[in-house]
Design brief:
By secondary structure, the chain is an alpha/beta fold. The chain contains eight helices and ten strands. 27% of the residues lie in helices and 21% in strands. The termini are far apart.
C-alpha cells in the first residue's frame, strides 16, 4: 500500500476520558543557522518561548520547557512571565547539561519529569506560529488505540507531535545519539497520521530568510 493510501485508512476514534497531557517544549540549542538566539526572538512582540508556552497551556495540563544554551536567559524570561502568576504550578523548567550532544538528549531530560502524564505534546521552539485552533484539533485526536499521533499535510509529516507516555521508556533507554523517528517507526508503536489542513506543520524558523519570507510574522 502506498503512503497516500496509508494516510487514508479509516481510523477508530476511541477517545480516552480526560487524559493528562504534558507539553514538552525544547529550547536548548544554539540557533546557529538563525544567527540569533531563537527562543528569545520576538513573535507578535513576545519571545518565541513565551508564545509557545502560553499556547500549550491552553490545551495541556502542564508545560515542561527544556533549556540548555543560554539557559539562564530563558529561565529568567519564563520566570518573569509566569512564576508570579496563576500559571506557576503548570510550568516547569528543566536544564539539560548534555544539550551539546543533540536534541535527543533534551527530549530525554524532559521526559524524566513528566510524572503521571498520559500523553506528551512534543514541540520545537522554532514553531511559534501555530494557532490555538490547531492545538485543540490535534489533541482531539487523542485516543486509546494508538501511541503516536502526527499531523500530515499533503502526505508530508509535520510537527508538533503527540505520543503516549509509554514511548518514554523507549526514549530513555536509547543511546543519546538516537533519533526519535527510529522509535516512532518500530512495529510495536501504533501510529495515527492526521490528515490536516494546516500547512504550517511543515515549516519552522531556522534562518533569517525563513522569518523574512513568512507573511504571518508580526513583530
Amino acid at each position: 500500500m502506498g503512503r497516500g493510501g496509508f494516510y487514508q485508512l479509516t481510523y477508530n476514534i476511541a477517545k480516552m476520558e480526560k487524559p493528562i497531557i504534558t507539553g514538552l517544549l525544547i529550547s536548548a540549542g544554539h540557533s546557529g543557522r538563525m544567527g540569533a538566539f531563537k527562543p528569545l526572538l520576538p513573535y507578535n512582540q513576545n519571545p518565541y518561548v513565551l508564545v509557545i508556552t502560553q499556547k500549550l497551556l491552553s490545551v495541556c495540563d502542564r508545560v515542561v520547557v527544556v533549556t540548555g544554551f543560554n539557559h539562564k536567559e530563558v529561565e529568567a524570561t519564563i520566570k518573569f512571565a509566569f512564576y508570579d502568576g496563576n500559571f506557576f504550578p503548570r510550568v516547569d523548567l528543566v536544564y539539560n547539561p548534555d544539550y551539546e550532544k543533540g536534541m535527543f538528549t533534551s527530549l530525554q531530560a524532559g521526559l524524566k519529569t513528566i510524572g503521571n502524564s498520559d500523553w506528551v505534546l512534543y514541540h520545537f521552539v522554532d514553531q511559534p506560529f501555530h494557532d490555538k485552533k490547531f492545538y485543540k484539533e490535534l489533541i482531539s485526536k487523542v485516543n486509546s488505540d494508538c501511541d503516536w499521533i502526527q499531523p500530515v499535510y499533503k502526505e508530508k509529516e509535520g510537527h508538533p507531535v503527540l505520543f503516549r507516555s509509554s514511548i518514554t521508556a523507549l526514549v530513555n533507554s536509547s543511546p543519546q545519539n538516537s533519533i526519535l523517528r527510529t522509535i516512532r517507526d518500530l512495529p510495536s508503536v501504533k501510529k495515527y497520521y492526521w490528515n490536516c489542513n494546516y500547512p504550517n506543520i511543515l515549516k519552522d524558523y531556522d534562518t533569517p530568510e525563513d522569518v523574512a519570507n513568512d507573511r504571518q510574522l508580526i513583530t
